[in-house]
UniProtKB/TrEMBL annotation:
The keyword Nucleotide-binding applies. The gene is tmk. Signal peptide: none annotated. This is Thymidylate kinase. Belongs to the thymidylate kinase family. It comes from Candidatus Lumbricidiphila eiseniae.
Length: 211
């Protein structure tokens, strides 16, 4: 730790409820007196919005390596201009997706060498890692049903075949197994309020340890 703030990331497959839980956690911490920055990848900056439009909505083909590099470019700018300054001010950063997303989606999903993807992302962020990562675990079939009800059109990654999303889920669980002290794995089939309560309990304990 080289900063007074606290960095929390939320991970999981599309449709797992990350955005909802990020907002609920931010509200709870704000009520508890914390200064909170709630952001996302890709798209947490003006530059990131443009990159997000390319990686998620471009209608032509994007090679897997190019896709991984686009995410890394977004991450480099986002960390430099939003995340690290907030952490240095002592704030809590709650972020929807970070390096683990690239390891799961571009590494396992696109079948790239995971360690290469990790090296690029860690270089892009100058080694900044989360203090805690909430993994909302959900079967891809259940996630697809949620997305179908919520929207009429999928983005590029959501539209991938079930086998792709199965690889992504397996990769996330493997990452969590290798770093159990960082990951908070939560069953995303639970009621929204139960998930929020468990995340809040675990995060509050971690913040108390840091105090």
């Amino acid at each position: 730790m080289t900063y007074p703030g606290f960095f929390i990331t939320l991970e999981g497959g599309d449709g797992s409820g990350k955005s909802t839980q990020a907002a609920l956690l931010a509200e709870a911490l704000h009520t508890a007196g914390r200064t909170v920055v709630c952001t996302r990848e890709p798209g947490g900056t003006a530059v990131g919005v443009e990159i997000r439009n390319i990686v998620l909505h471009h209608r032509g083909d994007i090679s897997p390596r190019a896709e991984a590099l686009l995410y890394a470019a977004d991450r480099a700018h986002h960390v430099e201009t939003v995340v690290r300054p907030a952490l240095e001010r002592g704030e809590v950063v709650i972020q929807d997706r970070y390096i683990d997303s690239s390891l799961a989606y571009q590494g396992a999903g696109r079948v790239l060498e995971v360690e290469h993807v990790r090296a690029v992302s860690e270089w892009a962020t100058d080694g900044l890692l989360p203090d805690a990562t909430v993994l909302l675990d959900l079967d891809p079939t259940a996630a697809r049903r949620r997305l179908t009800r919520a929207r009429a059109e999928y983005d590029r990654l959501e539209a991938e075949a079930t086998a792709f999303h199965d690889r992504v889920r397996s990769a996330y669980l493997a990452l969590a197994a290798t770093e159990p002290t960082r990951f908070i794995v939560v069953d995303a089939t639970l009621p929204v309020s139960a998930i929020a309560s468990e995340i809040r309990r675990r995060v509050t304990a971690l913040l108390a340890e840091r105090a």
